[in-house]
Amino acid sequence: MAGTDTTQSIVYRPSPAIILCEPQLGENIGTAARAMANFGLWDLRLVNPRDGWPNERAVAAASRADHVLDKVRVFATTEEAVADLSLVFATTARRRDMQKEVVGPEEGARRIISHIGAGAGAGLLFGRERWGLYNEEVALSDAIVTLPVEPAFASLNIAQAVLILAYEWRRQSDLGEALPFGDGRAEAAPKSELMGLFEHLEGVLDQTGFFTTPDKRPSMVNNLRTALTRGSFSSQEIRTLRGVISSIDRRHERPNPNRQKPES
Amino acid sequence: MAGTDTTQSIVYRPSPAIILCEPQLGENIGTAARAMANFGLWDLRLVNPRDGWPNERAVAAASRADHVLDKVRVFATTEEAVADLSLVFATTARRRDMQKEVVGPEEGARRIISHIGAGAGAGLLFGRERWGLYNEEVALSDAIVTLPVEPAFASLNIAQAVLILAYEWRRQSDLGEALPFGDGRAEAAPKSELMGLFEHLEGVLDQTGFFTTPDKRPSMVNNLRTALTRGSFSSQEIRTLRGVISSIDRRHERPNPNRQKPES
């Protein structure tokens, strides 16, 4: 979905940190950064990335989410990466044999929003491509966040898991209803203009004999008006439709070039 | 997020069709199929895919979402791909100069769910990697769905756009609250056991002189009990904590190997 508005500048709002634990592939770091940028996150932290940092493949995969990559911080351990946070969720699709609360993305985002709203720091832990998070990392989290996936196909790519949680955060924030553009629809015309259309059309149809019998006319008119009301036409559209009616109605008044002259 | 439960079998529920218009890269078809599978969608339709069908790169990128790829249907035109549907949304991140309603993913998913609930067919159109959807394709849709993205970074990969809409569909469906696993938390112990812990601890602290002055004791006790109540400990955890207290309390009763013998 192309459509970035280059006239807009990036806004760095208070938002949750995304912590990738020992990511193996630069591509995943880049696509995670892009997913964050799509929904306004920017605090990306890497714990001991396998291929070091900076990483060219991450840059290539980030589709110009450079403002996120430029702010990346690298840590030696997960403990250091979350040291400044007071609310940490571990994202995992695997049940852990642990006395740890499990919540869905809606509840997780709700808690993060109120926590950050109170001026505190919150973050989300994401595990390794192969093995996910270690139990030690889940243990130092306040709760587990997992997604309402299809149990028979529960495996998400890291960037996709980041995307869903970034989306939930934004959806529930005051930006959730703020779409990048609205519809350019003109407002519906006043009913008087709609009545003008109806009477114009029905007058023509009276002449063409559309209404088979007088007793059927009222119900047929109601059905027509019901159908034509549904479109909530603008004044311009009503003018156009009346032009269409007139054009068809006048057809017989004009000589039809395709019609054969009658034999004389 | 690894965690697919291989004991579960795929369920094909009535769900929206995902229509990719002239996708250029097989990878994107595969990752879109995977995103669909994560949230239980399965009806994938391709309009004139650039590299034909089947596509090995799609299979490689789908991470075993074979049940979706096996059902793929290919159409020559978008009109044919939506012919059996009575509700079609065009996904786009670009404003169109068109009198077309624009809704967000929540409203879009809400309409799709009620439409499908009424037994009718619904689908979502996704555009080309480079140019998105043509205006002709947007025109034949009932409305535009766009995401509440960061305006300054609005470009989503096709699979990511599919993922968000598949997630919204599932989130609002009766499966939205169904997480693949719950927490294994034992229930909180009865208050009598918690009182036993409090009295045990406070009794020890009375002996150690923790409560500096008698008049401070009640408030200090309340603060301690407040902190220890918050964890809603299980019976097992309370037994463990009482063991901890006893162990510390008894330390002086045992000879301390590190302590020097007093000079005699």
Automatic annotation (TrEMBL), chains A, B:
GO molecular function, one term: tRNA (cytidine(32)-2'-O)-methyltransferase activity
Catalysis performed (reactions): uridine(32) in tRNA + S-adenosyl-L-methionine = 2'-O-methyluridine(32) in tRNA + S-adenosyl-L-homocysteine + H(+); cytidine(32) in tRNA + S-adenosyl-L-methionine = 2'-O-methylcytidine(32) in tRNA + S-adenosyl-L-homocysteine + H(+)
Primary residence: cytoplasm
Domain of life: Bacteria
Chain ranges of the tRNA/rRNA methyltransferase SpoU type domain: 17-167
Keywords linked to the UniProt accession: Cytoplasm, Methyltransferase, S-adenosyl-L-methionine, Transferase, tRNA processing
GO cellular component terms, A-Z: cytosol
Segments crossing the lipid bilayer: none
Record keyword Methyltransferase present: yes
Enzyme class: transferase
One Gene Ontology biological process: tRNA nucleoside ribose methylation
SUPFAM superfamilies cross-referenced by the UniProt entry: alpha/beta knot
Location in or out of the cell: Cytoplasm
Pfam family of the protein (one): SpoU_methylase
EC number(s) per entry: 2.1.1.200
Quaternary structure and interacting proteins, as annotated: Homodimer.
Family note: Belongs to the class IV-like SAM-binding methyltransferase superfamily. RNA methyltransferase TrmH family.
NCBIfam families: rRNA_methyl_1
Protein role: Catalyzes the formation of 2'O-methylated cytidine (Cm32) or 2'O-methylated uridine (Um32) at position 32 in tRNA.
Name of the protein this chain belongs to: tRNA (cytidine/uridine-2'-O-)-methyltransferase TrmJ
Primary gene name: trmJ
